[in-house]
């Protein structure tokens, strides 16, 4: 990684030192530069000649940085910040200071589990991995921690050694599945149906936790049957509050109101969870109203084990047994992964599983929870002073909009640039491999005037760039890192000095800002360095009760320091134990931005926003995968799954020579023997995988580990390993779910890419 | 000298330089390949961590075999008091001595650090069959030397040869048995780990040694006009029948026992031989190396020299194929055969779940060198000690 | 990298890591062995890769490899009763008490190191490269320097272990260079699933022997009589719903 043939190094002495490729610049109504390209070799003298006004000065000003594109925005993309608050933060800082837009990554990665903001009002909240060992029952769905969370694998074994039961749900017989007490194979994308079947049994057997539902959720809050909206005090009485909701008190036999400042029910009130009640409104009308949970009840009662089995491919017996075990072997934890979330309807899948945890009261207690483990996205310290100096914020735009453009349903809060995007500045990312719908991405690339890539290695993204700036790896610079799995702050310290001419992202931005706007450089970049940035962020959290209270840089130099969070770190403790309203804050967003997700300030199983009502997704339900509507299952009968491989961190280390010795360096597409045989394919054959978005050629790996009707090709293989094609993401979808546009808080309520929602066909090459 | 003999002598003289030129050239090729291999390491061969022994060991085995076989025939005939092969004794001993010398040399290219081979002398590890093989080969070479010396003395003490044969015969049996035990004592290689391995090696040695003797006798006779005796081919052919029969019986016994008792790891290796990747070589060996020569020698064709020589050559080839099969069967199928297998050993090669072995030009070049060395020594020996002395031999006998 | 900035990896460890890897108290004459928990082994190859790093093992060579008990690498097989099964068997030198490799080595280059826990070690100086030991090892854990060693990055090595010459054989040393510093072998220290236990097979109260007895430890190819000092702990029994 740090060294090797692909390390970006400056070109040899006799190569071009100035490369201008296809630059366009319009000044006013004049197209000053139209596709100018030139190369200047080192030591060479070039003369730019032309009649007055032909654009010579404009070109030179671009070269020295006095001019920048003033139409359209430069879009800065840097991956999820948890693994580098300082240097990924430098991206934000520069974007803020220079007025560039910054892209999102958590939602672009498909990792934003929309079920979480929808249900709990947070970006995401998960139990720390060591808490797995406290569970009596572990339900691992769409996750393969034994390959994707290797350092945490032992917690699962610790749990099993303590007598916990491990159930794994995965279409593929993965490494995690091989260690399970029970492995359940589901038809991909049908988890919601399965979970609703399990909920059905829990409800039918009376194994749910009524007290929990009443106290912490919107289950008892009445919904107006005719409008689908919740009843508020202001509906019942003139001058009533729009922030107080209504329940049906069974003791009194009439409506009672509850506020949003505290969870729980008013003293003496016994709210109904089901039924239909007649309520008199302030304007005299009488309407029928049902508690929110009654909608859930209606939905789950329709999902008999037989119906759930038919859709999901599990057996009714397994659904019955799982329901009973999950509901009674407490505390029970659900560990969900990208496999279940990376669907267009991933939010419904998550909401259905979350429903199980909520119905059984497995929230906010050690050994329980509904945790989605995806990515190193988490901002655990207040990063604002470093990222947004003087509180200047860059416009943050979901990167999927760069790919798709404005959608009709795009939330108006998205700061989509009026004049579109003109340039792309890519860091920490192999963007041209790891984006969905790659061919569409490449089309969009052609519209860019400038593409700059900052990377230690000559990936395919770097090869495509107009300008490549060699970056230091994480072995060569200082940074502050944290992860969602363990509440420790770590100082990433250099093991070796920077290789060759590589510079850190902070250095690179500092140099760029200096050339573009010396005044801003003096203010925001000249006097800061990595240490300064870290101290800034530690200080911001150093209040009593703050996450970094008392943590110093000196402590961090000695080793990881535990953040000031509960031990074990489990989410929603304050809500469950102190009845504090939902949601807790999701750094770095202000609480006001995320509170709107939960108007009731409770766990919401029922959603009243218009779009949920329009699409029939008020409560968790099952919907068939979206790509079934794009690719006719008759023509594209196989589902293309692209999980994370243990041999790489996404695309990083794809070219590691040691690992290549082990896995052989050939992308293999896992197929079931029945599907392979039907296509005349044997193990090791060269095959073509294709759909309307793209195609690739690789090798077949035939095994019963595959689910029938699927083709599994791990993501992250660099393009060059394929016989043909750019990689698996030629085929994946960039479709945007309008539910994900009801609100817009970047990386927290935003369109989450559905990688696994993808159909294909396979044939022998 | 008759006209025919004169013509033949003239022929011989004109073939001579070409022959010696060819042999010298072959030795130069072999030496050059060895130097190339020494510079670059054994990576230039087709060997790998899974199939770590190949052509060199196979050749070594084969050479020890023909050496032992030849001497057993000569010494055996002496002990039994048979007159029939008296004329062949010198030739047999020359072949035997040259073969064992070539065998000793053939080990050197197989070593990764041949420049340190003297450490085997300085610090021998007495539990290692390799050390015992070095000892017995040295002893054996000395015995062959003594035997040849005695054979070429004009005034031989009667019975001296018999006394030498008493030592030579067990030495010959031992040299190939110890070579067998290099392989046969390893629990890691079930196909080799059988009590029958040493007897199998001896029986194969007899077949190949005899085959070589037949073929060489014929060549010497044709080229130099030397007369080995009228019934020699018939007699040798009769002997060949017994040797092939014994060899075939032992092979059958070994395969039957392994196959019928169905011990899994033994069976896995045997299946490669009978039905798997080595099956073509094995069944060809059986057909061409066992059945055909047996049929020839057991039938009336034995009276025709040409057929006996063909049988000898085929039998020799068959034994060579057998050596290949013996080594490869165990090497192809490691005991712990789970994926991804054993790393090949070369950069960029990764693991080899299903390895193959194809000898490279370096290995073949060295074999050419060894064969040339063998040919040169035998030619010189024959010229000096066999052809001129034929009258002397007859006088003594 | 420049010599003056290079520090031995053991020295560079933070205190907590060094504590984690400490062997602890041992008798004067331990008989070193290891147990590998096949329940906890997840086939991640971390131990194999760190072994390559720790010992500067050249490209194309592995002292430690993680075999899949299945149809192919990381591929399950259909079990006895129709269900899919997959597990992993990390395999390196078993440091046998009756080592066939030692017996056949003509120069005693391979020897039993009685001073250090009866580990089976190789002195490459004495190795003539005959590869008899490779033929003799039932486990196939020895690798040979067929050519000049090559590394992914020229000139970079950890330097913890002497490089081995071309034409010599090499294999797992049980990280003897770490044992003499009181640290467990690298593979034991680095296993993320904590699947390896190192210790004295002659200490009945030690963690190693207790684990083998309580969990049930078996040896590979026990019937061959090599008396390997590596034990494999049985996987746990599964509970069905």
Tell me about this structure.
The complex is a heterotrimer of chains A (765), B (397) and C (241). In chain A, α11 packs across α12 (316-328). In chain A, 27% of the residues lie in helices and 18% in strands. Chain A is α/β, with parallel strands linked by helices and 765 residues long. The two termini of chain A are 33 Å apart. Chain A is globular, with a radius of gyration of 27 Å. The longest helix of chain B has 38 residues, at 3-40. A two-stranded antiparallel ribbon of chain B has the order 1-2. Chain B is globular and about 65 Å long. In chain B, β1 and β2 (351-352) form a beta hairpin. In chain B, 72% of the residues lie in helices and 1% in strands. Chain B is an all-alpha fold. In chain B, α3 runs antiparallel to α5, α7 (197-224) runs antiparallel to α11 (305-332) and α8 packs parallel to α11. Chain B has helices spanning 3-40, 55-80, 89-107, 119-122, 129-152, 160-184, 197-224, 232-261, 264-274, 279-298, 305-332, 361-386, 390-396; strands at residues 342-343, 351-352. The radius of gyration of chain C is 18 Å and the shape is globular. Chain C starts with 8 loop residues before the first helix and ends in an 8-residue tail after the last strand. The model of chain C has no long low-confidence stretch (mean pLDDT 93). At the B-C interface, α5 and β1 of B face β2, α4, α5 and β8 of C.
